[in-house]
Amino acid sequence: MVKFIVEDHDGNRQEIEAPDDMGLSLMEVLKASEYPVLATCGGMALCATCHVEVIEGEDELGEATDPELDQLENLPEYFPTSRLACQVRISPLLEGAVIRLRGEDN
């Protein structure tokens, strides 16, 4: 299990614990935890509605892929530590990270 912090649109933080042996994406875990993540494209890195900002732990997650960057660069707000939650896999690298929700809330 991996533990990380999620900060919602109101600035509230909650620790999330997720299995790191199922190949889940951060997007899937956020949706299962009932966060308002639209994920319109279903995790294909085509819509950027699962945009998150990695506040702490960004160095551990590595660089965004080119298709991910293509989507992020089209957003009105884009940060150097922005990622698409659908492209971040739950792994021990996420341990202790702080993730801020940035995508459109519904």
Secondary structure topology:
Layout: E1 2-7, E2 13-18, H1 26-32, E3 51-56, H2 58-61, H3 66-72, E4 82-84, E5 98-101
Parallel strand pairs: 1-5
Antiparallel strand pairs: 1-2, 3-4, 3-5
Keywords:
Ubiquitin-like (UB roll), 5 strands, single chain, globular, five-stranded mixed beta sheet, alpha+beta, 106 residues
Description:
The chain is α+β, with helices and mostly antiparallel strands. It has a single domain (2-101), classed as Beta-grasp domain (Ubiquitin-like (UB roll), Roll), CATH 3.10.20. It is built from three helices and five strands. It has helices spanning 26-32, 58-61, 66-72, and strands spanning 2-7, 13-18, 51-56, 82-84, 98-101. It has a five-stranded mixed β-sheet. The radius of gyration is 12 Å and the shape is globular. It starts with a strand and ends in a 5-residue tail after the last strand. Belongs to the adrenodoxin/putidaredoxin family. One of its GO terms (biological process) is P450-containing electron transport chain. Its cofactor is [2Fe-2S] cluster. This is Ferredoxin, 2Fe-2S.
